[in-house]
Amino acid sequence: GVPFRFAIMGDNRSNPEVHSRIALKMARHKPYFSIYTGDLCYSGKYFEWKKEFFTPEEQELIARVPFFNSLGNHEAQTELTKVFLQAPQSKSNNEYYYSFDYGDVHFLVLNTEENIQPGSAQWKFAEEDLANTTRKWKIVVFHIPAYSWGGHNGNKNMQELTSKILEKYGVDIVLNGHNHFYQRSFVNGIYHIVCGGGGAPFYTPKVSPFVQKSVKDYHYGIADVTPNSLKITFYDLRGNIIDELTLNK
Questions:
Q1: Element (H, E) at 121
Q2: What is the model's pTM?
Q3: Considering its fold, how many domains does the chain have in total?
Q4: H or E segment and range at residue 146
Q5: What is the pLDDT of residues 211-220, one digit of tens each?
Q6: What's 150's DSSP letter?
Q7: Angle CA(17)–CA(11)–CA(41) in degrees, nearest 5?
Q8: 219: domain CATH number?
């Protein structure tokens, strides 16, 4: 596969100043596209979208770099959200959960604001989607984490989906937001990464045997995919590396 780079950011709501700084820094890495882990604005109202998400720096970034968002509980399923977050055409017939391929990576983006219990349309979509991909790497993105320690902790529905579907089909990485800190956990063969440091008020991460790294600071991630490796580097606003993860296949 062809090498490529993508950026990761989430939970920028309520703090356009920090969000603008992150957008500037992400742009300097020249990503092909960005993955956002949700909560792009506080309540989905027009003035909040304009002030909190569509800052001049973010507009400059997304004019050149497309983004894919996993719906957060703050922007929610409003009409404006639907307009601003038109997702790729997808068999789900629902613009808030979908999948796409880029190079050797299959991305599945789910919606934790909609029913995702066993037997639901979204559950069936996720299972069928992962069963039918042949890409080397599988990354799943959803806002409310299955596994996280501190803040809101983990979500039981997403834990069930993870154990019965994501683990079954060999997902490599799960990207989440919702908790306003950085945290990398490793549970049953999957790295669960909370990237929620885009500007929202901090929560305090907690310790767990599953947690490999936690940082209470603003941050963003840059992922580099090569034919044999997937490397994600997370940076704070000062440019320091706060965490690195490299997987090889």
A1: helix 121-131
A2: 0.94
A3: 1
A4: none
A5: 999 999 999 9
A6: B
A7: 70
A8: 3.60.21.10
